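Progress note, sequence design subtask.
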């Protein structure tokens, strides 16, 4: 792996971890992948068809650096998420636990939803009440209060938070100013079509500063600081 911008030697596992070390704690980083023309998913609706071997390597390493993973329920279903070594918090307006995410060790899968979610009771039965966060902006809002959720995770000692999307959740986090860093992999492909971009929802304009740029086998891996 070549270092194009930044410092350190990313050619070793230890050097790569150092290249991605968070500058402070707490820290919330998002990790996304797209083709050169901006497609965040292939024609099967999955980001797994866009990424490359080195992207998968960095994906795994970022999980190791994180205390907890944050991901939207739609992405969990599309990518067929399963319990992992790092705890996963699924953000869902309905409170339904995706089928592939069920059956792990207690605390491996957690869920953030709203107090009036239709599947809230079922989620508590499946995951345990202590692993379900009911945080709504108002009694009638379908949106999870992301600021309150991040505060709860910090209170539990989860200082390093990794968001793996999808685009809608990343857009919502950016709009309320909760993202510190975007890790973006650009793979050497052109996909065209109607695939989603890495950020979804209403228009926004967030300034970034390039912190680190790595390259391997024509795949570019960038660390962007948000609102530097």
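Output:
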């Amino acid at each position: 792996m070549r270092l194009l911008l930044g410092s350190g030697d990313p050619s070793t596992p230890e050097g790569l971890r150092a290249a991605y070390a968070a500058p402070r704690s707490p820290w919330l980083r998002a990790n996304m992948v797209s083709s050169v023309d901006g497609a965040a998913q292939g024609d099967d609706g999955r980001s797994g068809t866009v990424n490359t071997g080195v992207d998968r390597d960095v994906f795994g390493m970022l999980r190791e650096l994180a205390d907890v993973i944050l991901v939207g329920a739609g992405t969990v279903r599309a990518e067929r998420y399963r319990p992992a070594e790092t705890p996963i918090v699924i953000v869902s307006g309905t409170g339904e636990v995706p089928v592939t995410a069920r059956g792990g060790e207690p605390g491996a899968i957690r869920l953030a939803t709203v107090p009036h979610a239709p599947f809230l009771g079922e989620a508590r039965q499946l995951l345990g009440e202590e692993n379900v966060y009911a945080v709504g902006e108002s009694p009638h809002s379908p949106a999870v209060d992301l600021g309150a959720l991040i505060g709860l995770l910090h209170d539990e000692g989860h200082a390093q938070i990794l968001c793996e999307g999808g685009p809608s959740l990343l857009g919502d986090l950016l709009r309320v100013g909760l993202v510190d860093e975007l890790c973006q992999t650009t793979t050497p492909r052109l996909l065209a079509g109607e695939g989603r971009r890495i950020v979804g929802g209403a228009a926004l304009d967030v300034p970034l500063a390039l912190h680190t740029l790595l390259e391997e086998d024509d795949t570019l891996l960038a660390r962007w600081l948000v609102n530097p």
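The chain has a mean pLDDT of 94. Work on this subtask will continue into the next period as scheduled.
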